[in-house]
């Protein structure tokens, strides 16, 4: 369940872990039994004592009392060297793709190193003097959401500098199922580093185990990796997140629709950035057959939204209550069929759509008029192959 290079520590954590999981024995956990790894300090504080620690964190790194993990560690006299911040920054206010500057956390005075823009992988100089990197960031379980790429680059840099990585695990809102096309080598990028499907059915802690176990880091190196597990977590149950993972995923509805709607980011269709319903609506000036209308305008989380100021026609999914557990391609396919613009192709010229999809296959299938059923059938073999890999790294009941 936990990977650690110190036997005594491993035994200590395993004893606590297995003596506190009633549902493994067939019992249903009590209503208040669930806990994120951050809320199990008895497991990770002993591993940080007398160590120089770098904390990879953002606005989601909260304990159940809403105290930030960094503030908690400072109170516990843990020696924090610096903070690593992912896309959107330490406080989570930057737009998607926006350059985030390094700086100083005004509350603690700790230096913040941005791991976005030109500095996605920590430089060796940022790791000097550190013993441990403690990672605690809420993921959403989707390949093109960049926090798993940040974790991978942190693990790679840590392995090269012989520094341990400890991951405090958090729920995956899209856990317990896999779906979508597989990433291919030619299209790898920060929105898809590894050969996994769009939805991969692992917590971020399990994902790190997979990256390590499959030797996906550069030159097949492996990191010293410790996973601190959640308490009473089940992959088929849905748990609320501590805070919005990024500015345009403000709630559970957006997160639920995100794997299906994010493909639009590679097209001439807006996903509602610059509105009160990001990733809950979609539309374009060139899909006038749809009934819902909205106009993107600058907001705190989208300073210059796509199709800014243009009237868009689309669909409002904000009342969509179903826990998807499957990719819905219908919205994408219907938009393509209804798109009428002789001057611009449905897909962006930079073919960002292919990076999101993992190859050019899905785009070509859409252009060819392939049905949703046929498209999904074409993913089946890859998903079956990936499931064999996924099974090796499951920590929680599926």
Dominant shape: globular
| Radius of gyration, CA atoms, in whole angstroms | 21 Å
Q: pLDDT average, as an integer?
A: 91
Specify the biggest β-sheet: 7 strands, mixed
Percent range of helical residues? 25-40%
State the helix count. Answer: 11
Q: How many β-strands, per DSSP? A: 12
**Which sequence of SSEs, written as H and E, runs from N to C?**
HHEHEEEHEHEEEHEHEEEHHHH
Portion of residues in beta strands equals: 5-15%
Strand order of the largest sheet: 3-4-2-1-5-6-9
The helix/strand class is alpha/beta
List low-pLDDT spans: 1-29
Separation of termini? 14 Å
Plain-language structure description:
By secondary structure, the chain is an alpha/beta fold. The chain is built from eleven helices and twelve strands. The strands form three sheets. Strands 3-4-2-1-5-6-9 form a seven-stranded mixed beta sheet, sandwiched between helices. The chain has a three-stranded antiparallel beta sheet with strand order 10-12-11, with no helix packed on it. A two-stranded antiparallel sheet has the order 7-8.
Annotate the secondary structure layout.
Layout: H1 7-18, H2 41-48, E1 52-57, H3 69-75, E2 79-85, E3 103-104, E4 111-114, H4 124-127, E5 132-136, H5 147-160, E6 164-168, E7 179-182, E8 197-199, H6 204-213, E9 224-228, H7 252-261, E10 281-284, E11 292-294, E12 312-316, H8 330-338, H9 352-357, H10 361-367, H11 372-391
Parallel strand pairs: 1-2, 1-5, 2-4, 5-6, 6-9
Antiparallel strand pairs: 3-4, 7-8, 10-12, 11-12
Helix pairs in contact: 5-6
């Amino acid at each position: 369940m936990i990977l650690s290079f110190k036997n005594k520590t491993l035994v200590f954590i395993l004893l606590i872990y297995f003596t506190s999981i009633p549902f493994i024995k067939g019992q249903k956990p009590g209503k208040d039994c669930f806990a994120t790894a951050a809320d199990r300090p008895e497991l990770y504080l002993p591993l940080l004592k007398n160590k120089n620690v770098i904390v990879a964190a953002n606005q989601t790194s909260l304990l159940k009392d809403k105290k930030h993990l960094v503030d908690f560690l400072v109170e516990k006299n843990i020696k924090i060297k610096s903070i690593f911040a992912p896309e959107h920054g330490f406080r989570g206010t930057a737009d998607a793709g926006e350059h985030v500057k390094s700086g100083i956390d005004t509350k603690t005075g700790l230096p913040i190193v941005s791991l976005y823009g030109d500095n996605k992988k920590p430089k060796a100089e940022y790791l000097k003097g550190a013993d441990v990197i403690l990672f605690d960031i809420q993921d959403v379980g989707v390949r093109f959401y960049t926090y798993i790429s940040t974790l991978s680059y942190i693990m790679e840099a840590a392995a090269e500098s012989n520094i341990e990585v400890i991951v405090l695990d958090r729920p995956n809102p899209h856990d317990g199922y896999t779906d979508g096309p597989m990433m291919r080598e030619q299209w790898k990028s920060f929105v898809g580093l590894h050969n996994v499907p769009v939805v991969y059915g692992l917590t971020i802690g399990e994902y790190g185990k997979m990256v390590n176990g499959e030797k996906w880091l550069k030159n097949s190196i492996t990191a010293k990796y410790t996973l601190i597990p959640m308490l009473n977590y089940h992959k088929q149950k849905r748990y609320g997140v501590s805070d919005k993972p990024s500015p345009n995923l403000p709630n559970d509805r957006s997160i639920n629709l995100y794997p299906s709607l994010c493909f639009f980011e590679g097209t001439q269709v807006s996903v509602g950035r610059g509105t009160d319903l990001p990733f809950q609506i979609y539309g374009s000036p060139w899909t006038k057959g749809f009934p819902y209308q909205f106009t993107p305008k600058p907001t705190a989380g989208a300073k210059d939204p796509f199709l800014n100021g243009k009237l868009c026609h689309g669909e409002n999914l904000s009342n969509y209550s179903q826990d998807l557990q499957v990719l819905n391609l219908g919205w994408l396919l219907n938009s393509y069929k209804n798109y009428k613009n002789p001057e611009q192709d449905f897909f962006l010229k930079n073919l960002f759509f292919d990076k999101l999809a993992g190859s050019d296959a899905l785009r070509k299938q859409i252009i060819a008029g392939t049905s949703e059923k046929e498209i999904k059938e074409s993913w089946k073999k890859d998903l079956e192959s990936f499931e064999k890999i996924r099974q090796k790294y499951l920590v929680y009941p599926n």
